[in-house]
C-alpha cells in the first residue's frame, strides 16, 4: 500500500511539473530559429554535428537522438571539452522535449540527465552563458524562482549580455518569472527585449513574446520602447496592431511606418 501511495504521489508531482518544463523547452526550442542562430563551431564528432543541426532547426527521431547520446556518453573524453559538453546539453534538451511530447516514461531520467550535462558544461567552461541559462530554465520551470537559479540567470547576463540568439531565448524564460524578479534583473529582461526589436528582423517573434508577457512586463517594455529607435518601434507596433494588440502608451502607427 505504501509503495502504491508513493507511486501515486510521484505521478501527481510529475503531472504538476511537466507543463512548466515543457514551456521551458518551447522557449529553448526558439534557439533553433534559423535567422538568429549561429553555428557553434565547425565540429568533427558526430554528436557535435547533430547538435549543430539541431540548433539550425533540423529535426531528428528520438531513437536517433538517444543513440547519439549513448555513443557520446560511451566515447566521452576525460579531458574538458567545452564544445562536446555544450553539444551534450543541446542533445539532451532535444531528447527531453521529444520524450515529453511523445509521453515517454523516461522523462524523469532525461530531465536529470540534462541537468547533469549542463552542470558538467559549466564546470568545464564557467564562462558559458548558454549552459548557465539552461540550468536557470530547467530549475525555474520545476521550482520557480529561487536564489540559486536567480544566480544562474545573472551569470547568463554577465557572460553573454549581447549574444542575440541567447537573448531571444533568455527573454522568454525570464518573462515567465517576471513578477518575482528583482528590479535589476527585470530591467535586464526588458532591455534584452528592446534590443531584439532594434535588430529589425525579429518583429513577428518579439510580437508573439510580447503578447504572452505579463501586463507588468508589457507596460515596462512600452516605457522602454518610447526611447528606442523610431522606425523599429513603429514597425513592431504595427505588427502588434495587426494581431489585434496594442502597446500601452504608444499611439497607433500608420499603415506603413517604414515608408
Key structural traits:
0% strand; Serine Threonine Protein Phosphatase 5, Tetratricopeptide repeat; 259 residues
Question: Could you explain the architecture of this structure?
Answer:
- By secondary structure, this protein is an all-alpha fold.
- It has two domains: 2-176, Alpha Horseshoe (Serine Threonine Protein Phosphatase 5, Tetratricopeptide repeat); 189-259, no CATH class.
- It is 69% helix and 0% strand.
- The protein has helices spanning 2-29, 46-55, 62-74, 82-102, 107-124, 129-143, 147-159, 164-175, 183-198, 203-212, 215-225, 230-242.
- The longest helix has 28 residues, at 2-29.
- The protein is elongated.
- It starts with a helix and ends in a 17-residue tail after the last helix.
Q: How would you concisely characterize the structure shown here?
A:
This protein has twelve helices and no strands.
Number of helices: 12
Number of domains: 2
Average of pLDDT: 78
The major sheet is characterized as: none
The name CATH uses for the topology of the largest domain is: Serine Threonine Protein Phosphatase 5, Tetratricopeptide repeat
CATH class of the largest domain: Mainly Alpha
Tell me the strand percentage band: under 5%
| CATH-level-2 architecture of the largest domain | Alpha Horseshoe
Report the uncertain regions: 29-44
Helix share bin: 55-70%
Amino acid at each position: 500500500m505504501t509503495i502504491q501511495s508513493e507511486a501515486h504521489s510521484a505521478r501527481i508531482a510529475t503531472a504538476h511539473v511537466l507543463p512548466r518544463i515543457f514551456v521551458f523547452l518551447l522557449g529553448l526550442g526558439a534557439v533553433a530559429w534559423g535567422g538568429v542562430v549561429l553555428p557553434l563551431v565547425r565540429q568533427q564528432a558526430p554528436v557535435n554535428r547533430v547538435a549543430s543541426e539541431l540548433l539550425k532547426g533540423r529535426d531528428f527521431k528520438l531513437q536517433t537522438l538517444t543513440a547519439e547520446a549513448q555513443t557520446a556518453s560511451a566515447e566521452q573524453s576525460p579531458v574538458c571539452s567545452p564544445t562536446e559538453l555544450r553539444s551534450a546539453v543541446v542533445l539532451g534538451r532535444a531528447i527531453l522535449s521529444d520524450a515529453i511530447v511523445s509521453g515517454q516514461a523516461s522523462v524523469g531520467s532525461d530531465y536529470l540527465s540534462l541537468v547533469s550535462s549542463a552542470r558538467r558544461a559549466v564546470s568545464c567552461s564557467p564562462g558559458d552563458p548558454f549552459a548557465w541559462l539552461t540550468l536557470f530554465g530547467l530549475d525555474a520551470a520545476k521550482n520557480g524562482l529561487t536564489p540559486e537559479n536567480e544566480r544562474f540567470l545573472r551569470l547568463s547576463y554577465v557572460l553573454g549580455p549581447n549574444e542575440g540568439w541567447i537573448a531571444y531565448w533568455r527573454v522568454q524564460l525570464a518573462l515567465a518569472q517576471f513578477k518575482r524578479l528583482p528590479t535589476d534583473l527585470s530591467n535586464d529582461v526588458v532591455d534584452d527585449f528592446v534590443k531584439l526589436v532594434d535588430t529589425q528582423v525579429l518583429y513577428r517573434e518579439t510580437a508573439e513574446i510580447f503578447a504572452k508577457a505579463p501586463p507588468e512586463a508589457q507596460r515596462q517594455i512600452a516605457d522602454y520602447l518610447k526611447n528606442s529607435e523610431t522606425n523599429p518601434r513603429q514597425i513592431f507596433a504595427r505588427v502588434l496592431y495587426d494581431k489585434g494588440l496594442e502597446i500601452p502608451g504608444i499611439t497607433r502607427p500608420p499603415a506603413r511606418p517604414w515608408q
